[in-house]
Amino acid sequence: MPSFKINVLGCGSALPTSHHLPSAQIVEVRGKLILLDCGEGVQLQLRNRHLNLMRISHIFITHAHGDHCFGLPGLLSTFSLLGRKTPLHIFAPATLQPFFDCIFRDFCYGIQYEVTFTPLDSEQRQSIFECQSFRVTSLPLRHRVPCCGYLIEEQPSLPHIIPEMIAAYDIPHWAISNIKAGADWTSADGSVIAHEQLTRPADPPCRYAYCTDTLPNPELPAWIEGVDMLYHEATYADADMSKAVLVGHSTARQAAAIARDANAGRLLIGHFSARYSDESILLREAQEIFPATDLAFEGQEVALRV
Predict the structure, then answer these.
(1) Which of the residues 67, 101, 189, 261 is marked catalytic?
(2) Residue 238 is a catalytic residue
(3) In terms of Cα–Cα distance, which of 75, 67, 1, 14 is closest to 301?
């Protein structure tokens, strides 16, 4: 099972179409599920993808536009109907506070699980959450309303013990975790075998950046330097550049330039305008700048590490 995987639930923009739903993604890190944005249709997509919605522990909302948060009232209500007991943690720009207050006052009163809402300063890059499996940093974006992107980084793992060394030095199972943590091994004849000889380096932590909705932000590449994958909105093609500037969005070519400048491993573009029935033009324009670009689509699964 992949230790770091992205599930695309929706990659359209404000107007739902017959082939795209509003923004939402599940990121699975070492068995933990977090939800990025919560547009309409999230619950159905979770069920269609056989993702256990009760395993969602954290929700990160980018901004106060309906195509990114209108799925929340229903999802929170469903948690209650299913008897959720574990706490739920929601992070979003502070401008969403009135929306959450309304949800809990009018739709989710009497729920039996704890919900914490953490308001974010959308003007500051901040470390906002950390656990044993991953950490999350908020990234200021440039939209018509306060907006945050998110950088999700896997926590460093321990080195791998070399299987041949286990057999060669008759290392018992109980000692393996200690060796991974840095201990040497003393063999039966008293010889000390160094930790470095018994192990190989750990896999580098996976890093994923989720950036929508935004005009190109010249500071973003430095903040996400070397990410394994960047999801960046690509609402418009070059021919609609004036529209993109007017409404605070990016073109596919601009998204690709951000990925190039960040030395990203891969780029996934989404948040497609409903005006395009065929997004191949967006893919072509992005690949001219950054060849390792793919189009997002509903139901897509992307493993950053298998």
Answers:
(1) 67
(2) no
(3) 1
